[in-house]
Amino acid sequence: MTQPIPASPQDSPFARKLTAFVTLSQNDLSVMSDLYRRRRKFAVGIDIIHQGQTDQSAYVLASGWACSYKILRSGGRQIVDFQIPGDFLGLRSVLFRTSDHNVEPVTPVRASEVTQGELLDAFSRTPRLAAAVLWAASRDEAMVVEHLVNLGRRTAIERMAHFLLELNARLRLVGMADKSGFLCPLSQYLLADALGLSAVHVNRVLRELREEGLVTFQKGRVTFDNYDDLVTLAMFDRAYLDHDGPLLA
Amino acid sequence: MTQPIPASPQDSPFARKLTAFVTLSQNDLSVMSDLYRRRRKFAVGIDIIHQGQTDQSAYVLASGWACSYKILRSGGRQIVDFQIPGDFLGLRSVLFRTSDHNVEPVTPVRASEVTQGELLDAFSRTPRLAAAVLWAASRDEAMVVEHLVNLGRRTAIERMAHFLLELNARLRLVGMADKSGFLCPLSQYLLADALGLSAVHVNRVLRELREEGLVTFQKGRVTFDNYDDLVTLAMFDRAYLDHDGPLLA
Lengths: 249, 249
What we know:
2 copies of one chain form a homodimer.
Chain A: H1 13-18, H2 26-35, E1 39-42, E2 58-63, E3 66-71, E4 77-83, E5 88-89, H3 91-95, E6 102-105, E7 109-114, H4 116-125, H5 127-153, H6 156-173, E8 181-183, H7 188-195, H8 199-211, E9 215-218, E10 221-224, H9 227-234
Antiparallel strand pairs in A: 1-7, 2-5, 2-7, 3-4, 3-6, 8-10, 9-10
Helix pairs in contact in A: 2-4, 4-5, 6-8, 6-9, 7-8
């Protein structure tokens, strides 16, 4: 589940991810390595970002999985997305006065803390990195849009298939999966809160997908038994993840 | 519905909006006015941005309303958001190889075309503008997250109330509304596609809101009859719009 911390900035999941958008120069990598300086650890059960709190830092996730969610005044919770190595945690929080969401670890997490000042300083040293971070934020938004379509227009089984294919594509970009599948630490409760289903429903949908020979989620591993048919079922078009880079030389 | 085009960059809706995040310097304003050079007009019924197309420009909306939406392979459509003056149209499209969504005018639109090269050039001339555009993109994402919560966790009447309060807050930021209400060109069909309801259901929900003395949507105008009670019903907390700036002096 966890990955060894890479020795050099260009091997980091963050750099691998941004390389889908921009060819990173030595200067870009040097500015990025400054953003890695303050590495912190978070245990499961302790929020990394708090909804309603001001003066939050953002983090670049180095290893482990996290999830972002909103608590409603009615007491319910909606998981917005999961974060994997290379993703920002709380990028919005570092730009907004008040964080509008929570982030908590799904597994033990190592992440580098970045303040607003450090981020703006990095932007002025390399505007290409600013463009790359804007690209990453746009990709995050594109995923939330897909999750909106998931909830609004897809059946439970299509939703689950789409979700597993998206996770696989994201993990492949940072070298943590291949087309055969991936290690997945998500419980059925987390899947339920992300997909707007009950845990019982999640269990039924996963059984259906397995019995139809499409995908098996067992013992912390997702195995694609028939990748192409799963793509057809989910109407999965990975263009919105924009992984065929770099666009910017 | 439409606004006169402002004579100076600092009076533009785009500048008014970004001022919620950053105090714009003379240099920032001069770079922004370069982004306004190629003003174009779009009639209703003609897509401004096309899903699946490459090499798209982005636009800064100067006057009129637009909407962004996705067409599913199944043929259905999901409206992701509406855009008002000061908003970007297709910011993701200008960074991605392939646009993952469509944008079409809701009313006649005037908008300034911005290419990827122009945007990156502007970032290198003023990294503060890069931060402000990242803020604007983050705010767009925060709104999509709220729409996700809308679909996942709110009833039809709460959803409509939240949606009208959000639009009002956004329009107030660019000087096109006050607490009493706003001019609104959206049809019940557009509301339905945005809120995941049928047009008949939209009609019923609007009647309920009117009969309870909360809000009246008639003849292209939304009038808040009891703003505070509407906020309570919708559990509307405008922190996610981050309008209390500027944060960055």
